[in-house]
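re: that chain from earlier
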Amino acid sequence: MKWNRRSRRFFLQGAGAALTLPFLRSLLPSSAQAAPTPKNLIGISARHGLYRMYGPTSELMPKTTVQNDTLLELQKVTTSAHPIHQGTLTELADNGVISALIDADFAPLLPKMMMLQGLDYTGLGGHHNGQFGNWETMTSASGNPSMASLDVVVSDYYSKVGLGGDQVTYSASKKDNTYGPSFREDGTHTTSRFFNPATLWDKYLGNSTIPTDFKELLVDQVLEDYKSVRAGARLGSEDRHRVDAHIEHLFETQTKIKTISAACTQERPEEGILDRQLVLETFNDVIVGLIACDMCHVFLGWALALVSDDPEVWHAWAHGAYSSTEDSIADLTSYQKMKEQNGLIMKVMCLDLAKKLDALELLDDSLIVCIQEHNKRGHEAFNVPVITFGSAGGAFKTNQYVDYRYIGNPDMDCDDYGTSRYGFPMQQLYANILLAMGVPAEEFEALNKPRSDGATGPFQPGSGYGMNLIHDYNGPRMLKHYSKSWWNGYDLSGWLPLIHA
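^ sequence. v structure.
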């Protein structure tokens, strides 16, 4: 077997063909088997919010109601800050169903999921592009400086420590390929962008040939190498299974690539809305192959033009669907479109990918994290939901729903109807994601920037990842919540309650 000692990738070579194999720890020299391995981060952006995303009529999060300062069906947990509520997803599910959008199809993966609520973009205000750590630059003195998004921070750190720093962003359509929350430190968009899975395949695996009978390839074209790998005494049983499953996945993916290539080629002047689910599902296949081949471990995806040809129309839906004065659906058509958009993001971009990673035993070392941009109301950047799959190599405690809202705050008038309740800073979750990916606190804390007007926050200076202050958006309410004594000097680089395994 031939392999490059400068990387963890293995190759079978013969008859002019080269086929990348997955990382096979049992074949590494004993001195290298204990070396650190990169974890896989896949961020999924969900723009704006969804009315009825929580509460007794929730269509996204578990259905809960407030009674006597407690969320029914959940355990009240005392923390160093305010009390929070926690429940087990498999116990909250009704015949495997959490909600209308997290339905029975998700049931097999509930033990590997987290559903979080009550996370606040304290430094973001009411603006966009906050899901993964970049605060949209404003022109006023109180504007937030541009920062690298989480995918860039992780890929830069992996490159620095020799784990491979490739990073990929992707979307369902060339019409929204210029959007997305993936930014470099200077505020410019990352450039490794794809809307055609065939192009992504060709960048990394274009020289690989995988015939219909993959065993014929292994036996006839790379016979000597295959025998030494497949039948070698050093190859562990788990790695032997991984080789066969990996090659079969690559073959199936290449077959799908040939089908989708004609549908989304970059030269195609127009694309059909019906193509986009297939595009994203094929992206998922390629992503799994790249992770298995140890070629790329950091991805960020979005899909604005998923149920419409216009990538801007989701903005109108979000603002038109909900009446904040009546706390009700204002426009049913807009609401159904937002619901369809959110449902497809969860099913196609998250669940389909999670299932494919899990089938190759890759999900446990991965973290798929889907972060909403806003709450139930457009530009309400607090009480934001987050849904994850995978434990990032055991860093996160899965199979749970954690609600970080301060239910029963005695001196706040927030009731989740007129105004949503506040919870814990989103910057702490960002820090936890980076820690789970193996990025030390001193690495990401050094990237934090002050705001140009000198504003500060109550938290431990420099801690967490993102704007370490309280934005003046939403007037005095957020300031009042975060003026509680326990937030003074609070370490945003520490682990959020309950989620660290």
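Confidence is low (pLDDT under 50) at residues 1-18, 210-224, 260-271.
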